[in-house]
Design a protein that fits this description.
Blueprint lengths: L2 E8 L3 H8 L9 H5 L2 H9 L4 E6 L14 E4 L3 E2 L14 E2 L2 H13 L5 E3 L6 H11 L9 E6 L9 H16 L6 E7 L16 H13 L1 H4 L4 H8 L7 H8 L2 H5 L5 E11 L2 E9 L2
Parallel strand pairs: 1-8, 2-7, 2-8, 3-6
Antiparallel strand pairs: 1-10, 3-7, 4-5, 9-10
């Protein structure tokens, strides 16, 4: 059967993509951030999965404010990098895995989660920046990717508990897929940041690191954190962190009662643009 062997968590700041694309990673401002992902790129080479299930949020690219699905799964054969206003990022086209994506959609919907099925979608920095951070600048991404978009832009957004439970449903779906596949699940977005209003530029290091601690040690309790706590402590865009709970909910300690996952890597850096960057790699026991 297919199996989830690891989860990856990372911010997806658009300026990070621009720094990579414009060859600025060596500059003094950016060096500390990219140094924190050197281990991750080597880890990815040593632990390349067969498929990545990548949880992200669309930034009014594939979906506008006219129509925003709460949860949307990509079932296409490929996904083109989006033009977000200054041209598409010069990164490879993302290859999908339609068979596994359709199976997950079928299974998760039968577990009473309503998913939107997306057969054609351009993917923005929310998906491509994490791939660049983990994989560098290859001619082709190292494996197929299943995009899974979550609405954390227009309220009402899903609760942390809903996201955590969805991760459990995804794990069950993967385990029922009759193929020997090694799958990674990624949660992206965050950490603390606010892009507008009187608190624009807010960064809360204490909250971010407490979140990382609890994500590892007690995700079930973390899932109960209400939206207002994220907004108050981590800024209006800090709500993106609920997406990390989808990936954490899919891990084997949550679903099979196995030992806690191994922390392969942890990294935190401020600022990148006006955002706190968090990163975590967990390996299933």
């Amino acid at each position: 059967m297919a199996r989830i062997t690891a989860s990856v968590y990372t911010s997806h700041v658009p300026a990070i993509g621009a720094a990579i694309d414009m060859d600025k990673t060596h500059e003094s401002y950016w060096q500390p951030l990219f140094k924190g992902y050197e281990f991750s790129k080597q880890w990815m080479k040593n632990n390349t999965p067969d498929v990545i299930f990548l949880v992200f949020n669309d930034h009014a690219t594939a979906f506008s404010l006219d129509m925003i699905p709460t949860f949307a799964i990509g079932t296409a054969a490929q996904y083109t990098p989006a033009d977000e206003g200054w041209g598409p990022r010069p990164v490879p086209v993302v290859q999908g895995h339609p068979e596994l994506a359709a199976h997950i959609a079928q299974s998760v919907i039968q577990q009473d989660f309503d998913l939107t099925i997306v057969n054609k979608m351009d993917v923005d920095h929310g998906l491509t920046v994490p791939l660049s951070l983990m994989c560098g600048q290859p001619q082709a991404w190292p494996c197929p990717v299943i995009p899974f978009a979550v609405n954390v832009v227009q309220y009402p957004v899903p609760s942390g508990q809903r996201c955590f439970n969805l991760g459990k449903a995804i794990a069950k779906a993967v385990q029922s897929f009759d193929a020997d596949l090694n799958i990674h699940i990624w949660g992206t977005g965050g950490m603390s940041h606010q892009l507008q209003g009187p608190r624009a530029g807010l960064i809360n290091k204490e909250f971010d690191n407490a979140f990382l601690d609890q994500l590892v040690a007690d995700p079930a309790s973390l899932a109960q954190k209400p939206h207002i706590d994220y907004v108050r402590e981590a800024g209006s865009e800090g709500i993106e962190l609920v997406m990390w709970l989808i990936a954490r909910g899919a891990m084997s300690d949550v679903n099979d009662g196995k030992a806690s996952p191994k922390v392969a890597h942890r990294f935190y850096h401020v600022p990148a643009s006006n955002t706190a960057v968090g990163h975590l790699i967990l390996e299933n026991a």
